[in-house]
Amino acid sequence: MKLFRTSILLTGTATMLLAAPAFAQEAAIVDAETAAGGGEEEIVIIGTGQTRQVQELDAADIALEVPGISPLKAIDKLPGVNFQSSDPFGSYEWSSRISIRGFNQAQLGFTLDGIPLGDMSYGNHNGLHISRAIASENVGRVEVAQGAGSLAAASSSNLGGTIEFFTRAPKDEFGIEASGTYGSEDNVRAFVRMDSGQLVEGGSALSLSYAFQDADKWKGDGIQRQHQVNARIEQKLPDGRLFGFVNFSDRRENDYQDLSKEMIDRLGYDWDNFAKDWDLAVRVAHIANNRGDTGAPVSNPAAGTVYPAPIKTADDAYYDAAGLRKDWLGAVGFDTGLSDAWSIAGTAYYHRNRGRGIWYTPYVPTPGGAPISIRTTEYEVDRYGFIGSTALELGANRIEAGVWYEDNDFNQARRFYGLANTSGAPSRSSIDWPKNPFATQWELDFNTKTFQYHVQDTLTAGRLTVNAGWKGLRVRNRAEPVVQGSLAVGEITARDWFLPQVGALFEITPDQEIFGTFSQNMRAYASSATEGPFATTQAGFDALDLKPEKSSTYELGIRTKSRRFQGVLAAYYVDFRNRLVAFSSGSGIQGNPAILQNVGSVRSYGIEAAGTYRLTPQLSVFASYAFNQSEYQDDVLNAAGAVVAATDGKIVVNSPKHLAKAEITYDSNGAFARLGANYTSKRYYSYENDASVGGFVVLDASLGYRFTSGTLDGVTLQANAVNLLDKKYVSTIGTNGFANRGDSQTLLAGTPRQLFVTLKTQF
Q1: What is the pLDDT of residue 51?
Q2: Mean per-residue pLDDT for 461-486?
Q3: In 3-state terms, what secondary structure has residue 135?
Q4: Spatial contact of 384 and 160, defined as CB atoms under 8 Å apart
Q5: DSSP string across 537-596
Q6: Of 98, 103, 291, 624, which alpha carbon lies 20 to 30 A from 110's?
Q7: Is residue 78 pLDDT above 90, yes or no?
């Protein structure tokens, strides 16, 4: 029955797409309505002319969302994109997860103006999250390639797709933009941007902005706070530009408590950390010690051995946790034509990060102090790189070549900081950078050197466009001990000098085209003590016989457009080989070493459809649907050949079969509104598929008015609602990884209904 309903939906979508030329008969009506003053900007730009499955959102679309929203949340409506976060902005990094076609975030590629953002993992080893890289108000557009990302994309992790962000350029005329937002949980956001305009005629233009956001958590006690400064300068050339930018971010965010399904049933969706009840956290730690649950010695026999109801374990709640991040990201670059047929481009960049992941742990008491200490994972990234490319047009051919080089020094440490034996409140704040540790469990220096090149030829012959090329990638990872502890050091390399990509586009009519692509990609190893081949013991590392993960992607699709409608229907098949899995034990807070091994392959296939229909020049409807079937092809075996996890034929974790999005927007005479619905089907969070969370639908809405005359000319008033119907659901899964079987403490509850009001002005 489910298959029948899916077939009906796919058939209906295909019929809508193929019937699109019929809408062209209404073009005269639309022309008349447009002349009367309606707008015609599309909600989503379908990748017309591309040989790959590509969609794009622009700044106007992002501006309709809650100010400060992560661009990742804005693209969630695109087909095949599954984004989850437990906060209303999608910027809380511990919970921020995106997957595409069964590939998780660490298997996707991310860039900003061509500069690699790494895999945007919470571990922060090779880049930074987009919410720190740039303020959302300065994002000009976002391009999503669900399968075959551009060969030029500077990424060593894009097995399953690429997401590229682009900055708004400085304006040629002087102007100031400012906005202020207030909403649920005392959320305050302020943004101001100044565009200098061309300082002299034909000269450089500068943009400078500052953003501040401060919000309470929607449950428990804690804050989400960020300062951001973005500065950019551009100089136009006769056939190109010079540019440079510096972006700064200081983000401090308190964490939500990770949950299991059993905990949700017992404690509810609103259960969270103990903060600010320090005395209760201390009492629970004493009880855990007395019972032997933490492995620490008995610390206060008078506390007894019975947890206060409804608590059952030391992991039900910790006192507090937080993530602290400071980033500087800068670049200088150029792109210009040397002749009518020859162009070159280059960008040099630098990124510096200092970060702390903080957990108040009852598993390590403070010597001579509280039965709790602060456990940190500490990050220091210093990376620099260069991206260069050239293109030459020779008749019907466009030949492109490019290189990317990056040298990344990453220091990571696990330290413990003491807490005094106080009552009422702890002696250290979770959002202050801790000093003077009493122990360093391990500290490692990592270096990662990445080299990538690509060559591609695009041939245009009438209505047929064919491009073919390849990239080569080599990534060398090295780990050296500072305080080695129990973790591995050594060197490992991922290398493949020939990763091909071939695509074709045929224009059936000026309004319809078919496209197809084949591509291969490889994911390099992570240089980190908390993921990848070094996140194990030395004996485990020395015994590794790893191959880097690789994927082969096949796509076939059709696009169509008319005066009222544009749409795309695509099918794909993915062969994912050499899947790597890290097996760990204990709760996440314990940080036990993992063992990494190749465990076979994954097969994925599916269909994606998206379309925008303009009912009138003022009223548009957008819808997308994706069906994805991602299955493991092998059981996981140990060295002796025994089954560790019976995964053959099981669905990939965090890989919903069905994603459906719908949105209706209205914009006329200053008034605008949008209502969106997002459906995510069942997701598994155990490899053997015996633990899952149910599907859900979440509605978001926005409503506003732009004043265009009088004293309020240039002012916009906007209201946004997130989770309009106050749905209770599990958003992020896998925050502490995935277990082979059974329930585990790796879930986060989705945000309840949140309301925000924003006042914007520009002049």
Answers
A1: 87
A2: 94
A3: coil
A4: no
A5: -HHHHHT-----EEEEEEEEEEEEE-SSEEEEEEEEEEEEES-EEEE--S-GGG----EE
A6: 624
A7: yes
